[in-house]
Each structure stands twice: as C-alpha cells, then as structure tokens.
Target: Rho GTPase-activating protein 20
Amino acid sequence: MLSLLYQEGPSTEGIFRRSGSAKTCKELKEKLDSGAEVDLACESIFVTASLFKDFLRNIPGSILSSQLCDKWVSVMDQGNNEEKIKSIQRLIEQLPRANVVLLRYIFGVLHGIEMRSEENQMNAFNLAICIAPSLLWPPISSTPDIESEFTKKISSLVQFLTENCCRIFGEEITSLFGEM
Model:
C-alpha cells in the first residue's frame, strides 16, 4: 500500500482527501483480512488511500499511542522548532519499534506528496487534515467541542511532522522506497 501511495500519491490531486468506492474498499478489506492475495495496483489509488487510513484507524491505541496522547498534544505548545523536534524525537523513542518503522514510511510518503503539492494540491496542512485523525485519538471519548480542539492540535502536529520529517526521522526518509 505504502509503495503504491509513494509512487502514485505525488501525482494524484487530492490524495487522502477523496474517498475510494465504499463498496470496493469493503470488499478489499474483507479479502485482506482473510489473508487473500489482493493486487492493489489494479484498483484506484483513492481506494488504496482509503484502505490505508482504515488500517491506521484500526491500530489498537493508535500508531502514536493514545497513552502518550497528552504529551503529543502539548508538543506544539513548546518554544521553537528545535525544542519541538527534540520533544517529538523523545516521544518517538517511547513507541514500539514497529510503530516507529511504520511512521518513518508514512512520513516518507507524506513528504513525497508534499514535495509535489503544486501538482496534487496536498500541502502539509491539507495532508495533516486528512491523515491526522488516523494517527492519534484520545484514549477516552469526549464532547464534540473538545474533540474538535483535539483534532486541530493533532493536525498541527502532523503538519509539523510532515514539514520537518527529514530532521525528525533523518534524511534517509526520502529514499526509504529506493529509486522508483
């Protein structure tokens, strides 16, 4: 999925914003969940993007860890960019290794898409609005107003992560998928 998003996302206008066919997504999710072979290259890239966001939303406790939710939310309230980056790196160190590996690939994809935002209309802000709710959610439900404020803060964080991913994860993030 990530490889396809890395290849096609940068040249696809509105990637992550437009939803794939609900029926196709449901059928493919059932196939994937059953372990069947699925050739996503034959599907719309919007279906792949929708399936990927669904996958992220189904990670128990979220990829950024709901247990660290308050710490993630407070990162953007800190001083300068250097302090924010250091705080983010400390939080990443507290995540399970599998989460960190997946995050590196996710932000490698987002970085590639953002680099061609003139073409795809998906700058870091737009990507964050679309993907942030799939990366972190609070451990307990709350009022719509509190959830709205939370979503804004997490979107701001994901925008910052996207814009600074090379400094946070290392320059090699741009070549995780090799030369495609």
In short: The first helix runs from residue 2 to 8. The CA atoms of residues 5 and 82 lie 30 Å apart. The mean pLDDT is 93.
